[in-house]
Amino acid sequence: MNELAEHWFKLQNWQPYAFQKDSWDQMAKGKSGLLNAPTGFGKTMAIWFGVLEHYYLKVEPKLTDNRKAKKLHCLWITPLRALSREIHQATNAVSDDLGIDYTIGLRTGDTLATERKKQKTKPPNALITTPESVHIMLATKGYSEYFAELSVIVVDEWHELMGSKRGVLIELALSRLKALNPKLIIWGISATIGNLKQAKAILLGTMNAGVLVRAELDKKIDIHTILPDSLEKFPWAGHMGLTLAEKVLPLIQQGSSTLLFTNTRAQAEIWYQRLLDIAPDLAGVMALHHGSLSQDLRNWVENALHEGILKIVVCTSSLDLGVDFRPVDTVIQVGSPKGIARFLQRAGRSGHQPGALSTIYFLPTHSLEIMEGASLKYAVAKGMVEDRIPFIRSFDVLIQYLTTLAVSEGFDADVIFKEVIKTHCFESINRQEFDDCLLLIYKGGKTLDAYDEFHKVKIIDGLYKVTDKKIALRHVMSIGTIVNDAMMQVKFLNGKYLGSIEEWFISRLKPGDTFWFSGRSLELIMVKYMQVIVRSSNKKRGRIPSWMGGRLPISANLGAAIRHTFKEIHYKSVESKTPEVKFLMPLFKEQSRLSYLPKENELLIEYVHTKYGYHLFVYPFEGKLVHEGMAAVLAYRLSKIKKSTFSIATNEYGIELLSDEKIAVAEMSLEDLFSTKELYRDIQEGINTMEMARRQFREIAGISGLVFKGYPGKQIKTKHLQANSGLFFSVFEDYDRDNLLLRQAYDEVFIFQLEIVRMNAAFQRIEAHKKVLQTLQHLTPFSFPLFTESFREKYSNEDWLSRIEKIKQQLEEL
Amino acid sequence: MTISIRGTEIQLLSQKAIYLVQYKILVIADMHLGKLLHFRKKGIFAPSISINEDLETMQSLIEEYKPDEVVFLGDLFHSELNSDSDYFLKKIALFPHIRFTLTKGNHDIIPEEFFNNAQIDIIQERILEDKITLRHQLPVNLEPDSFYIIGHVHPGYVVQRKARQTFRLPCFYQSGNVFILPAFGRFTGLFIPEFSEEGINYVIINNEVIHIAK
């Protein structure tokens, strides 16, 4: 038993959980491992007392009087500044309670330069920090001395980091720190994901087996679907959600604090406005929280939540992670959560006592989405939690890392190559590819020109080094993997900062225009450099900004759960149906009456002629991402039979191909249309992968250091170095096709954008299905949401709301 | 394509330049010479391209239209001098009988001495008949009866195709008494102007210039 923990738990009058004791024991044995535990059950303490015990048993006794100067003992890495702050507070409280001299520092992007300097000259025992800050430390001279006695590394919320390039930053940092101290103890903390074992292997490395500690806590989740009073038989996305706002009010009243999750920041703004409209008394006890709001504002909301001042917070994934808000007892999810893990995580934001019930309300935004309520229950019961797919071969991050090491102490290529290929991300790269990366930073690529002025990294005494101070500074400023769009800061006249909005939205506004942001109505006064100066407005109506990249596709697991729910529709007895399916039966009957209701092993295809053209609807239920790729393949195959142009719309359930002319469905066998034969070729031919790769290249160019965003507050100085990534993309396409980063852009498109693996699996599944083709003169309940999707895009400037209503009325009269 | 402004015939060339027929002036805007090399010099690994295609295009334009004068509408060089300027000097030395003029742009930070040695005139603006004015960007105080031919903006046009395909193309842009040339340099970005009521785009698609009005 861990003595410090025993003492401290007694002080708190708490009983440790089995998983906590288990973690302490494993850490006492010097083992590394992964702890799988939900938020709010003391996972921090499960690891922290292991850290403390290690220090007081193994390190402190060996300290002699003349070497009392502290060295860094533990590094605790979290994905969020807010979480870092919370851990900093909690661990400091332990040191205070126990009266021990173990000191803990906090280092994030917010930490002042003076504080950082102090942390460098007089290190604390432990440092709570972020992946980016660790790399900034690796870019500092003397880092190997600084980390020389580092014994423990803890990576918090590893499941979250693992599926992003920030995970690659961690892998690379660990490869270096392990080389400095081969005995380094590494612990990860992760929520439940499908591939926990892989998560452990990636973090610890293949050489280090480690242990997996799982908190077997019985966490009950109660899922309620909020059903509308009447069923729309012709559903369309986004319409129904807000009308259900009234049903949310009693839930807010009955609970002590409610979190209402939306999928996009724009949706959060809309919901905030709507709730304020229908329940003005919420003013003062309702707050808004999303990723584009200023840190100050978010901190305020988080603190107010802690203190139980707020009744409801409308939020996005910005509140998915980490920090634990005890007063929260009700969670509402607006729209599809798109994934089971995310849904569970959000559900877990309420009901923190062991054995307590987590209650989550699912509020569908259109009729068909009601089905997802049933699918979510099924998926949760079956534990169908998604895998997190780690990035591999991220050359952009490798190039950034190599430059980081060159900026600080310089590196020996052979040494670093051996370290890097021990990571999961780079285990498959060969020396040639590694050397190509070196060549990029050393000579600017495979240049044939003898007289060249490229200058970044030099070789000095066998070490790759950056000697130019400006280059070093530019690099340190751009460490990290999160590449944002050009963001404009929204400020009041008095300078108070509200948050940031993408440039393209502001470019559509004129001074005097009103828009909604951070839950306020604001009037644009002027735009100055990258600042948007506003004042409060009392106008009720205003445009609401939307942010790019907010749309998440449904995960493969949730897709499978939805297809399973579909089976239920065909159950003979009413009792065996879930309430959601029961509620939707009139819609399915209508579908069956107007067209056909597919069974689980059937694929429905509807070919409809309306005054807007010829529509081909297909319903694979595979999620939007896969549908987008699939639609392009179908369009390509059809246009090979007969030359034609299609407009494509997709949603989570299906695909629409729209053409001015007849579509050649009759001329082609449906088996061929959905065949897996030559699928890969047709994907490449049919999809404009170059355009997709061009977009993907933006992030890669930012991470690898091709595009420099400028020093904060110094827009002008770097003007001559600014270029957009699209320009570089074109230049590489024309002059350097084999460029590693260019190839990486295409690889990422195939893996992440087109989800080639899922698409292939979907075609295989469909190949075996019976295809049912219905030729119709009218739309159906299934096709209507897809139709409105494309309709909205085409008529975005017109009053499409009333037009859709008109079309719907016509259908209901059929 | 040829348009007429205040009786002056202007040929819009798909090579992203214009030719003023009466004056025998070839106008080229925003060449941004040496841009990629400048990036490389600062440690950004843009590909190194030794042959400058822009200068080849300029040469063939001069050979085809045989102008008396070539006016660069500013931003001739992207930044400081680098080896790309040698190529440039060699090219203009091929045409000793042609007058070269630069209306100074915001990127042009190279000392005037360089241009004097190369016998390139540096001026703020060049005013032709009927107050048709060639300069890099609009002056702070617009002369109401002037017609401005400028560069600086790098205008582009977005073609929206079905199935969510978009293409960004360089264009000439005219609105009121302002005519803007596309950037001549290959390694330049595009700015998409808001479509105003009176705005006219002359979009460059491959070897053609196509007129698109709202």
UniProtKB/TrEMBL annotation, chain A:
Domain Helicase ATP-binding: 24-211
Gene Ontology terms for molecular function: ATP binding; ATP hydrolysis activity; DNA binding; helicase activity
InterPro entries xref list: ATP-dep_Helicase, DEAD/DEAH_box_helicase_dom, DEXH_lig_assoc, Helicase_ATP-bd, Helicase_C-like, Lhr-like, Lhr-like_DEAD/DEAH_assoc, Lhr_WH_dom
Pfam families: DEAD, DEAD_assoc, Helicase_C, WHD_Lhr
Domain named Helicase C-terminal: residues: 244-403
Claim: Coiled coil is one of the keywords in the record: no
PROSITE patterns to which the protein is assigned, alphabetical: HELICASE_ATP_BIND_1, HELICASE_CTER
GO biological process, one term: DNA repair
Keywords: ATP-binding, DNA damage, DNA repair, DNA-binding, Helicase, Hydrolase, Isomerase, Nucleotide-binding
Family: Belongs to the Lhr helicase family. Lhr-Core subfamily.
NCBIfam families: DEXH_lig_assoc
Name listed for the protein in its UniProt record: ATP-dependent Lhr-like helicase
Organism: Albibacterium bauzanense
UniProtKB/TrEMBL annotation, chain B:
Domain of life where this protein originates: Bacteria
Database matches in InterPro entries: Calcineurin-like_PHP, Metallo-depent_PP-like, PdeM-like, Pesterase_MJ0037-like
Protein name listed in UniProt: Putative phosphoesterase
Pfam families, per the entry: Metallophos
Coiled coil: none
Molecular function GO labels: hydrolase activity
Organism phylogeny: Bacteria, Pseudomonadati, Bacteroidota, Sphingobacteriia, Sphingobacteriales
Every Calcineurin-like phosphoesterase domain range: 24-116
